[in-house]
Write a structure and sequence with these properties.
With about 100 residues, the protein is an all-beta fold. It has no helices and nine strands. The chain has one domain. The protein is globular and about 30 Å long.
Length: about 100
């Protein structure tokens, strides 16, 4: 049987295809949706990224960045684009803001 170069040249029949129960693939392992007119707070280790949903790119939507510096208005960000910026809280207005936790495993 042919060797699989991604599994240390093991034959395909010797590879364990059992899904991991402790690790997640990808950059993020979960998301929280902060509904319009609500505020979501994220403690340590906090949130690693966020994305504004349709309508959340409003001046009243506030993104509170980890490390301080004051809130950033939702008008400063494009809709449906993930920003790798750690946040401590999100005040969502006009639409849903999605906050992602980073996969550290």
């Amino acid at each position: 049987m042919a060797a699989n170069p991604t599994q240390n040249n093991k034959p395909f029949s010797d590879i364990d295809y059992t899904p991991s129960t402790t690790k997640f693939s990808g950059k993020y392992h979960s998301a929280t949706a902060v509904a319009a007119t609500t505020t979501g707070s994220f403690g340590a280790p906090g949130a690693a990224a966020f994305m504004l949903g349709a309508g959340a790119d409003d001046a009243e939507t506030k993104i509170f960045v980890a490390g301080g510096g004051g809130p950033i208005a939702g008008t400063e960000f494009a809709v449906e684009k993930i920003y790798d910026i750690a946040v401590t809280s999100v005040q969502s207005t006009g639409g849903i803001t999605y906050v992602f936790k980073r996969n550290v495993g």
